[in-house]
Specification:
407 residues, alpha/beta, Rossmann fold, five-stranded antiparallel β-sheet, 14 strands, 19% strand, elongated
Length: 407
């Protein structure tokens, strides 16, 4: 039952929206505890100062209101390591929401320790993946922490009840929240996701207004945009020769991709909790980065190393999707992946055109590509007669099988 656990102070992942504002007041009433609010700037493109002001209005002490800019840490320590693996969940999803949750959980635990809080809380519902991601992060970093998940405890299980609670406690409600929201949105520097409501029927075409950052491919410019991306040790470091910080670089790729209609997907995915969910995602910069990184690897990675990475990638992607960022198996895979990236340095040239990312060139001082070996002209480095023995050795077991079938 809610409120039966003794809680002194709780750190709430707080957006300033209706749900988390109701949660803030509910925590104060139900647990009779101090609340510390934490709002993360992950590049969602919203002004976050109103969240601070709203927390103060709801009675939170100024020293207990955290609004942290985590954009550089997000891209450097979470997005880039994931892209070294070329991680894609179920063939399409670039894990934009999934990869943000462990960082939020990590910072919540840090704030709990800084403020002496003995509990953390989140606003994820009991139907989704985020509750799992947040809580696996909490427990992975602070096994002793108390976790409060209001959506699994309270009886405010409808929009009407939430609004009634907000009005009763004089919680300001944005005008667009007074009716049913058309869909749920989550945004950060890597992607924007939309789920629910008008998107719940997977047969119905997503309305144009669902897409908030990318232009439709058919409306993109009729002339292609060309861009060059430099890599060092598997990570992008420069665009068109200009070195940029991780967050600035991803921001620039987002701008280029959005303007050219790149990064839209409409998928039905398998949630960790067991149900299928339809989502519309926009990942313009990440889509460009994935193509560029694979192109860089194509000339710098050994064949078997590249194939092993591709075999392990679905497992790695699933770990991130399911919330196991801080699990030992993810860290083990990360060590292998990072080892593979030591020579993944060089430059990739891309053409961006009406939703497409086309690799046009790649070069590296660490290239394993040998023009002398692959040329169709005469060469002095490869004896084609060597292939005969190679083929016969590989055919031996096939010949033996065929002989047995004949006997």
């Amino acid at each position: 039952m809610p409120g039966t656990r003794a809680v002194n102070k709780v750190v709430l992942a707080y957006s300033g929206g209706l749900d988390t504002s109701v949660i803030l007041k509910w925590l104060q009433e139900t647990y009779d505890c101090e609340v510390v609010t934490f709002t993360a700037d992950l590049g969602q493109g919203e002004e976050l100062e109103p969240a601070r002001q709203k927390a103060e209005m709801l009675g939170i002490k100024p020293e207990h209101i955290y609004v942290d800019d985590l954009r550089e840490e997000f891209v450097r320590d979470f997005v880039f390591p994931m892209f070294r693996a070329n991680a894609v969940y179920e063939g399409t999803y670039l894990l934009g929401t999934s990869i943000a949750r462990p960082l939020i959980a990590k910072r919540q635990v840090e704030i709990a320790r800084e403020t002496g809080a003995d509990a953390v809380a989140h606003g994820a519902t009991g139907k989704g993946n985020d509750q799992v991601r947040f809580e696996l992060g909490y427990y992975g970093l602070a096994p002793e922490i108390t976790v409060i998940a209001p959506w699994r405890e309270w009886d405010l299980n409808s929009r009407t009840r939430l609004l009634d609670f907000a009005e009763k406690h004089q919680i300001p409600i944005a005008k667009d929240k007074l009716g049913e929201a058309p869909f749920s949105v989550d945004a950060n520097l890597l992607h924007i996701s939309a789920e629910g409501k008008v998107l719940e029927d997977p047969w119905e075409t997503a309305p144009d207004y669902v897409y908030t950052t990318t232009v439709a491919p058919e409306d993109a410019p009729d002339r292609p945009t060309r861009v060059e991306i430099d890599f060092e040790g598997g990570d992008p470091v420069a665009i068109d020769g200009e070195r940029l910080s991780p967050a600035a670089l991803l921001t620039r790729l987002n701008e280029l991709g959005a303007a050219n209609g790149i990064g839209r997907i409409d998928i039905v995915e398998n949630r960790f909790v067991g149900m299928k969910s339809r989502g519309v995602y926009e990942t313009p910069g990440g889509t460009i980065l994935l193509h560029a990184h694979r192109a860089m690897e194509s000339i710098t990675l050994d064949r078997e190393a590249a194939h092993l990475k591709d075999e392990l990638m679905p497992r790695y992607a699933e770990l991130i999707y399911n919330g196991f960022w801080f699990a030992p198996e993810r860290e083990m895979l990360q060590a292998l992946i990072d080892r593979s990236q030591e020579n993944v340095s060089g430059r990739v040239r891309l053409k961006l055109y009406k939703g497409n990312v086309v690799v046009e060139g790649r070069t590296s001082a660490n290239s394993l590509y040998s023009q002398a070996h692959v040329t169709f002209e005469a060469d002095t480095v490869y004896d084609q007669r060597d292939a005969e023995g190679f083929i016969k050795l590989n055919a031996l077991r096939l010949r033996l099988l065929r002989e047995r079938r004949r006997s």
